[in-house]
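Sample pair:
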Amino acid sequence: MLRKCMALSAFLLIVLCCRTVKADEKNNVACWTFDRVVDNRIEDDAGNIHDQMHGKYTLVKGVEGKALRFDGFRTYIYRKVQDVPQLTGKFTIETWIALGAYPWFWAPVIEFRNAEFEGFMFGIDKNGHLGMRVPAADKWQSYLSEQQLPLRTWTHIAAVYDEKNQLSLYVNGKLTSSFKLKKKLSTPAGTPMHIGRNYTQEPWEDYQLTTTDFYSFFDGIIDELKIHHSVLSSRDIKKEYQDYHPKHKPDLPERVFPQVHRKSGAFGAYYTKLNYYDDWDALWRVSDLADVLVRFDNMTGKLIFWRGTSFVPCWVTENGIWFTNEWLETWGRDVCSCAEPIMDRDCRFSHVRIIENHDARTVVHWRYALVDAYYKFAAVSDDLRGEWCDEFYITYPDNSGIRKMILHYSKPIRPHDWAEQIVVLPPGTHPAEVISSPEITLVNMRGVKYSYAWDADLPVVLNKPEGANIQVINLKSKYRPFLILPPDSFETSEMKRGSPFFRTYSAEQGKGYRPDPVPSIYGWWNHWPIAQVPGDGRWVTSPDRASHFNLTTFLQWKDHELTGRTKTRIMIQGLTEKKPEDLVELAKSWLQAPKASILKGEFKNIGYDQAEKAYVIQKKNEGRPTGLQMKLNAGHETPLLNPALIIKKWGNISAQVYINDKPVPTEQFRIGHTSTLEGVNLVIWLKLKSTKPVQLSIKTND
């Protein structure tokens, strides 16, 4: 009797310890709990099959046990043809998901499709709607719920297909949409199954560029994915949703731009590695010296050259707003849409290096190719090479400097876009959060200014004030981006004008090339930065990804130099806390620099070089310098403002600066040395402001 009681007790214990079997689970044909990965294989508990994992994946806390995080770039699960469940007549698919971002196109949670337009995909469209893609003649028909799924939130989704050819979609236990299909659904014979990626590279249509032959990946977390060979009722679906109580927020790392504005220190250019978030960072096979940062010691703003922007230089304000004056861009029948460095998502041709770096200034070289979204070069010539650009960023300690752009063009020379004003946004940020109205202020050399607001009657061409050559972008920051251009008339391959050409861009001007409506008055796109898919002109409908918005386009001004192979333009750019009209003084000091004359010493006055923003002087004799005395003939129309000097062949010898025979305190000037094949140059930057003639002496610091 005792033995029987013990046996009965053991039996009851086993029953009580076992998980309660739900009625519908008897009809499960597949169930992935994602609790364990062994040898890159994930187990289907219902089918006792181990499916192959591909790409970078991460096991994280799920709604129950573990879940699988798909990186959105390369993660997917593959099931062999012979193990694919045969679904005919009726089925239910359900799962829990947490989206990191909406798909670039359609991304499957799970799909059974082939090239013969058989099967179906259960997934998410590019606007975040749950849906099913099913065959319709020789194309795929989309059936979508109206509800946009939330980001970074656990969400239960389900699709129910019944014998009457009715498809029903559920979100968090509630029916959202129901459709009568025209064609029976089933899993096609001889077709593998995919989770997290479409079955083949497909063309994906967008307004400006149709992306061809590209996979679309699921970006986020999937847990408790089940396929039932039965029709679950609305009550069943609701119970499936209510049976789980997620205790943890989805483990999706924050996607925040490098927080460079929070770090301060000595002025200079530094190699570094700027991270974004783990899954994106893991794509890059680079060292810890992959990026370049220029730091200023009088503010926390920065100048950044980062892989995430294809090394497009960005000014970062003290409160973390990113801005760029763009790059060289061209277009034509020989390329798809346009050719520009942001199409170089992998940084195959875009490179950055520090050329000069000392206390007086930094020089960073950015070289890039003009290629389209498929890496096809623009304007390939008889030398079998396309167009390239070398840009030099000569930056001084006062948060400003020269941008020198050298285009290596092909003949016949074609038009190029030389600059645009672009604000770069991290995920979750709307343009209105970072920019004020009026957005742009233009100023001419007389100090006359005019501001333009995008929420008013915005003209296409900005003709006020007459002869404008100074521009300030009114970001919501203390330090705001500015540029100064030569104000002269010009005739180039782009146009003939009496002064620089400023042209706006807005959502209103993009009609016909964008969705309608759009969530902003600006031209707002997310094909750059960060993106790893070929694209151009992909308008933002939700701020789920890193993005950018344009304020201007096709900015034009005079050529600084034109040769048979190159075309060069220059500008001053930087960050300022001054009023826009107060920048006229800086403009005059550059465009109308005081004349210099040598008073004493064996030196040759080469002259003021606008492309260096510096006076260039050369020592005539070999040996140790004996000292230099010169006069800078400053005046009200030719002011001195933080001048720089380059004294060639000075030698690797320190120097002391005197103004009007008085030594300049060390905190008021900075020196540096650069070595060349011809000798060692001395570079001096002075914190000096004057509208009167100045006698400047440079002596060796013995």
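The chain is about 5% helix and 40% strand.
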